[in-house]
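Look over both lines before class:
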Amino acid sequence: MTAEFAARHRSVSHIPSDPGRPYFIEKGMGDRAHLFGDLFTVYAGGEQTENTFNFFTAEGPRGGIIPAHSHPDTYEVFYIADGAVRLFVEDTGGEQYEKLLTAGDFGFVPKNCPHAYRIERHHSRIVGVAAGPGGTFERFFENLGTPTEELGLPQRPFVPEPQKFGSVPQQYDVRFLPDHQWRTRG
């Protein structure tokens, strides 16, 4: 059983908001949000780590590519716990990389590098860690998407209102790159 806390970013959270306090969270019981067809679950974020890193999972069905974006101040890790995910990354010199990651594989994206991904198998799960000098971005998912208490994927994809794309990403160190072209084969 996990405790519930009130937090400034949501009325009920399974994560204590004060840093320096040990805590434990049962599988899937972190702060959850639906965004498009995916479920994002945050287990640790800026409030708990003094803005040094976050830890979250992303689960989803096989689908389209997550749009190209970058994080000017954040390094991001992709560890594939289940399924398969194709990761696209462009380094700061313009060289592009594409790699199919399967369970147990790891991908690293340096700050300010355009990247995107596509879930290649149903029921894939990414374990993500992000860190950087500018803070953490884990609350992006529930602010662009919608908080949920459901444990599974959304019944219907949650598509944000268009005006949210203009404000929410910048608040959380996410820069969408709508004109970015991948020259890789994916």
